[in-house]
Amino acid sequence: MAGTAPWSEDRARTIIADHRSLRGALLPILHALQEHFGCIDDAAVPLVAAELNLSRAEVHGVVSFYHDFRRTRPGRHVVKVCRAEACQSMGAERLLDHARRRLSAAPGETTADGAFTLEAVYCLGNCALSPAVMIDDRLHGRVTPARFDALTRQEEPA
Ligand code: FES
Question: What is the DSSP letter of 129?
Answer without folding.
Answer: G
